[in-house]
Structures are given as structure tokens and as C-alpha cells.
# Entry
Amino acid sequence: MRKILFLTGILFPALLLQSAAQVRLPRLVRDSMVLQRNVPVNLWGWASPGEAISIRFCGKRFKATTANDGRWFVKMPPLQAGGPYTMSIDGSNHIQLNDILVGDVWVCSGQSNMVHQMQLHRERYADDIANAQYPEIRQFRVSTMTDLKTAHDDLPTGFWKAATTQDVSDFSAVAYFFARNIFRQYHVPIGLINASVGGTPIEAWTSEDGLQEFPSITATIRKNKDYFRPAVVNKDTVTRDAGLINRPEWYNPDYIPMHWRQINIPGYWEDQGANELNGTVWYRREIDVPVSMTGIPSKLSLGRIVDADVVYINGQQVGNTTYQYPQRRYQLPAGTLKAGKNLIVVRVTNYGGKGGFVPDKPYYLSAGKDTLDLKGTWFYKVGEVSTTTANNGIQAQESPTALYNAMLAPLTSYPIKGILWYQGESNAGDPAAYAQLLPALIRDWRNKWREGNIPFLYVQLPNFMDVQYLPSESNWAATREAQRKALALPNTGMAVTIDLGEWNDIHPDRKKEVGDRLALLAKKMAYNEQQLVATGPLYENAKSDGNKVIISFSSTGSGLITNDGEAPAQFAVAGADKKFVWANARIEGNTVIVWSNSIPSPRYVRYAWADNPDNPNLSNREGLLASPFEINIPN
# Structure
């Protein structure tokens, strides 16, 4: 035993030394990576202090010596677009990287609308997925991680994947369509580094340095560093659910339903007699299936369900989604359906607000050439009434710096072409703060990448929620205004999407148009097509003329028009009391004249100022819609 312990005492430190001596690369620097062209290329890693590192790439050799902190760094001269190349790194060990491309690298970040993968829009983009053969478009997906205290220098996992049918389903839909648009025109390899997390505020993506001008936030950062207890939400609705406790269970074909009530799908149960109910509600319906739909794969489309669901057909579970936002599109294998009566049971769990099936979504069962409509009368029964409670802990991914530290900081040594940003929904409750936080994030990221005013292109919030038919206040409109005003920073661009939203879905399905509009901005700002009209009309200035206001615009392109041939809609004016009324409007050249006979001295003008404005139709002849705005007319 003494000999074993003695040998262990000698060998174990030696093994640690050998391990420490191994050259290690950051997770981004690996097979199939895309390097940024036309700028010096950073290459870095870790090894034992004082270790000599040799790199061979594109016929050249580069040397470095590891510093005392274990880090080595090489700056290679700019490269032209091309590849694939091989890179060799030698120190105490040998590393070979294959299939390297040189092109343009874009960081794609934000919340869920940037997260949303192609597979979540499979029905709309089935052909795009099936025909994706773009091996020179590649995505590196950064896993969701948080750190409230320290900025990381590396990522624990991640791989570069090519935009082919095999892997494109996992690409961000917005980022993929952006990259495809750019690649088709310039035929330059495109790398997408996707670091995005659903439901996250902008503060979580900003570094501690970038938040120094916000005292209340920096106080929160200090507090979080000293004390962290994760929030716990109790959603205990399973063990006491009558539909699961009783035998047979309510999804079992042997169960005989008693005292079930009628209800319509789609619709929320709070609107159909089950008010203020959180918990589980079971839905059931028997349908007749023709022989032609049996023996082949089929598809069950259940729109969107708030919040979670488990779906059974003839007693077998065929689908399960744990949160409300994805559309339910369940693929059913051959043999799931039988000729004649089939039982569909859906167990819906709701944690707060209205529960049930979202209107204006597809609800059907299809197989082959046949489709059965599932809208209409179902039967329901409450399985469990519950309450949702949470402690006073911290939601880490909603906390200042948490996502920057773990997901963005490790990227900042990797040269990039620019940034795509789609976020704002989680900050729409405080537009005034967002008006300061968005410019702060832009400045912060540019400082961290140390590449000057690299293009920062972002998506303005789309239309969402109920349509407003009277002038009204709107946090979503005020957040769009904050986004518009961020254009004051140099080399920024904003994609207007006021026509691409859905009133009942915070994740609208039309992601291709968003990607294409970002690509249009990139062509002008990053690819030097200065003559290109890349955005719709943007408010420039205004002056009063009696009871009229004359508004001038930039980005008018070939001229101002409306996209429906009608007079400009969604203009409202107010006097000093800021009580808005709908206004008349007409186009004169590159200006819009706005007035209301009931407002003799207009002081304020708004355009498309609503959560979901009704027909905002002002555009340029290039077909790009004007951004919403609010202005205060000088005296």
C-alpha cells in the first residue's frame, strides 16, 4: 500500500503536468469554422507557460509563446474569401483542423424570435429545408449558459454545422434566410454564431462595463455577485390530476366519460365558462377516419396551446410540448389511425392567464390527400385546479450581465463582419429604459470586439396583440420608437416588420421576410451597395403650417406612396394636452401633410402608434414600409 501511495504521489502530479502542457483551443476554433476575411485573424488558446506554439495555415507559419497566465495569441494577416483549408497547431501536442472556410461571420443574438429554428416553421418552409444545400453557410450554436459574476473566456461545447438538409432544421430561421440571401448574391462563405435565448431582457446581454451608466442595474449586479439563489416555480399539477389518478385514466379508450361539458376549439376556456382557472383541463373528441387515411403516416396540427400539452390518440401518447409558443405539428407514424372511430384526448396545462387553444391557427388531422377539420365542439373536464408560487430567488438568465458573461464574452476575440439583433419583447414593459439600454448595448459590444463601428442590424418589433381602432397608448409602440431612435448611432440599421406580426402569436411565422430585410440592410451597410434603398421611409423632420404639420422623410427611394393606393392611414395628432385624434393625411412629393380640423394647433403627431396598428400603409415605391414614430412639433 505504501508503494502504491508513493507511486501515486509521483505519477499523479506528472499526469497533471502533462495534461496542463497540452495545447487547447477555444471551442469556436475547430473543424468547419468560418474565419472573417479581409481583417487580421486572431487565433488563441492555452498551454503551459513559456510553451512554444507553431501554426501552419495557408502556406505560412506563425509562432507564439504561452504567457505566464497560460494563454497564447497569434494575429495572422488578412485572408481572402475561400477554402476549404487545413490548419496545423503544434506545441507539446499536435492539432489539425480541417474544412476551414474564410468568408463573413455574423453574430446573431437576442431572444426567442432569433432562437426560433427552421424546424419550428417546418410547415411554411418545408421546401427550403428539403432543398437546403449550402455547405458554405455554417452556424455555431452557443448553448444557453449564465454567470452572474465572471466573464468567461471559452465555451464548454458547440460545433459548426453546415446549412444542408441534414442540419439546417436547427438553424435560426431569421439567420438562415439572412445568410442565404447574402450568399446567393456574393457567393462568399457565411458563418453564423447564434447566441440567443428566449424570454431574455437586454440587460442580461450587456457587460458590466456597458451598464455603468445605470446605477440601479449596477447595484443589482453587485448584489447578485454576493448572493444568488435561483428562483423556483412550483407547478405541481401532475400527482393530483384526477385524469391521471383515476383508473382507467381519462385518455384510456376504456374510460367512460361522465359530466364532461361542451367547449369550442379554438378558444380559451376563460372565455367559455371556466373563468380564472389555472391547472389542467382535458379535451376529448371522437372522429371518424376513412380507410384511405389509415396505414400511412399522418399529421396532427393543433395550432398553439397555452401553456403545455400532452396529446393521445386511441390511448397512445403521440405528442408533448412543454411551453406555449411553438405551433403543435405532430407527425404520426403509420398505424396510429384506424378506420372508423378514433379518440383524440388533449391534456392542457395552464400556469397563468388564459388557457386553451389560440384562435386563428390551423387545427386539423391529415393523411395522404385527406384532411379532417378539428375545429368546433369538443368536450372538456377539469383535472386539477392549482396555484403557481415562486420564491424570491433570481432568474439567472433574466439578470444583468448573466448571458453576456457566459455566452457573448467568449466570442469577442473572434473577428466578425457584423451583428444581427432581434430582441425587445421582454423589455416592452419599460420603453423609456430600453431607449437607453439599446444604445448602451450597441456601444458595449463594439467596444468589446474592438473592431470600430461594425454594422449592427436589428429588428423593430412587429405588430402584436389586439388591433386598436382608436388612438391609444402602447408600450410596444414606445419600444419601437426607442428602437427607431437608436438609428442615431453610426452604422446601425433597422428592419421594419410592422406588417409581419400575428395578433395572437409573439413568434410570427414569417421569418424569411425578416431575414431578407436584414440582408437588404447588410448589402447597403456592410457590402457597400450605397445606392441601394434598404429601408422604408424614416421620419426626418417636421414643421407646422397653421393647423397642418408637414413631415419630411429620409429613405424615400423612388418616392413616397401607400401600398394600397389609399390615403396614408394611422396618423394621429394632438394639441398640447396630448389627447390624440385620427388625422387626415396626404402625400406631397417626399412629405406627408397631416391635419385634423378638431386640432387647430397640433403639437404632437404619431404614426402607426399601437400594439397592432390597423393597416399602416405608408411606404416607398420600393415596397418597404415606413417605421412608426412619434414627434413633438417645435413651437
